Amino acid sequence: MEAACPAVCLCLWSTGVATRRRITANTLSGGGSCGELVSVESRLVRRIGRCPRGCSTVVALDTDGFDDIAVPLDLLLTRPVFGLAERITPNMSWRRFAINLARQPGVVASRAGTLGRELGAIAAGRSEIAPARGDKRFADPAWVGNPILKRTMQAYLAANKTVDQLFSDAKLDWRDAERMRFVLDFVTEGLAPSNIPFVNPLGYKAAIDTGGLSMVRGLRHFVTDMRKAPRLPSMVESDAFTVGETVAATAGSVVFRDEVFELIQYTPQTDQVWTVPVLMVPPVINKFYVLDISPGRSMIEYFLQQGHQVFTISWRNPTAQQRDWGFDTYGQAILDALEKVQEITHTERAHVQASCSGGILAAMVAAHLTAIGEGGRLAGLTLMVTVLDQYQAGVAEAAIDEETADLAIAKSARQGYLDGQSLAEVFAWLRPTDLVWRYWVNNYIEGKSPAPFDVLYWNADATRMAAALHRDMVQMGLHNALATPGAISMLGTPVDLSALTVDTYVVAGITDHISPWPACYRSARLLSGTDPRFVLSSSGHIAALVNPPGNHKASYHVGAVDESDTTAWLKQAEKKHDSWWPDFAAWLGERSDSKKEAPSSLGGAGMTPIEPAPGSYVREH
Fold first, then answer.
1. No. of H helices and E strands in the chain?
2. Which of these is catalytic: 9, 55, 356, 520?
3. pLDDT-based confidence at 124, cuts 50/70/90?
4. Is 356 assigned a catalytic role?
5. Residue 397 scores a pLDDT above 70
6. How far apart are CA 167 and CA 171, in angstroms?
7. In CATH terms, is domain 1-21+65-621 a member of 3.40.50.1820?
8. Residue 555 CA: distances (Å) to CA of 393, 530, 574
């Protein structure tokens, strides 16, 4: 199962822009004849060559500007502040949508006529419209075998297709298109007959099988979910896993703690270890244990088995009292952790491996170290699913205006933080079919409990973002500051990513809808260094990270970042099978000097184990 979009890892990027440019269907993307865009993450198209909306064909589209794909950071980080209601409330985008269609009465009349004829054919039983083969909403045989259900389904698909066509006909600019696409998807996907309790055959079949108990359980699930934010169907039970036992279970100790973070050192699992250690910097708005998700799937466990000395930061969950923690607070924390790691391991260098928003901070810290003449403290910089270049290529204007950004910043400042649950809501609605309505049917209509899945448990274990960090992130995204040398500072030093001298290893996921791989690739090209390496996993956002060896379906492309065009890079990059973890372990080893005897105890240099891993901060809510 592909991990649902982990909202709270805050990779700070979304693909909600419906007017994004396209690339060819046979490589990464295409479009249906209905006007629906089929993006890189659609396995459905690659398998059956059909549009998810149900139209019969997928046409190839032009390849220019595929990196114009994402909603920038500034827009993404304002959404959770204003909430879902603001996004679906009528505004000027609605007006422009209506006006653009009103200027094309002939087109609208043609669409209406086509829909009318299709509905007539549906009523007469002559329509051939059908859902895509991979559309699991209508997988139950009753949707085809029952004539009433079949006509209901077909009428919905026909109406949905017409909505998509009218949306395409309106030819909105990308801002209005993003807003209206969200509204239209919210309405059309929500009105799918599969979401209606007394229409979906799964509902009444479950009721018959359980003697009505499924209805009672479904109502109980609904009431429980609506009592607390983000007021969405639960994707996993809150007691499905236990931190420190079934997730975040790798042996180690907290060897340092301050008010911002805990530093965890893991127990070596080999007799000899590489001299140069690895410091992992996790996202700032979720728990670190996506890197130690469960035994056999843990990245930390795997690299310990390869002889690496592994440390990780575990961020404290900020409250209103920590409202002033911003870029400099977290940047200094990374420097403090790096210093402690070097003291414990008696080394002058360490690898820094960072993911998502942690990668943004780590890149800025690396630029700071380079600027002050201490870049040699880094043996290597690894950024995983991290976007540094926040804007759409070729779009000069920001996604939001300064006034909207200021309002969002002021609102989080009053509260003292940005709530991770609010951000989780934003991410869930980016993929409503997978992350909302799927669980609506399972939990409420069928009355089932969601299946236990470690990544979804981690995803639900959200944390807060300090108001100052929220302000800094929004302003950085608003001005795309990391793409311009000197436009932003870290610890008083202007950030210039092009001045880095450290070797870099950048990982992206080809089906990642949060940090699109072309954006990650473009970000990798911002970095200098003597030996940049870009790895494109065949997975999505979190599966690109939780990617243990042994999966015969997995593969990745690898190469340098000297090609400016992403499509051209993909064609010439070397493809390898299985996980990228062994490739990365070898890359680390080449830059880790020699091996030495593994330490017999954890800590050192005056630091003694404080408590067993995963520590205390990870348990704070």
1. 22, 20
2. 356
3. very high
4. yes
5. no
6. 7
7. yes
8. 28, 26, 11
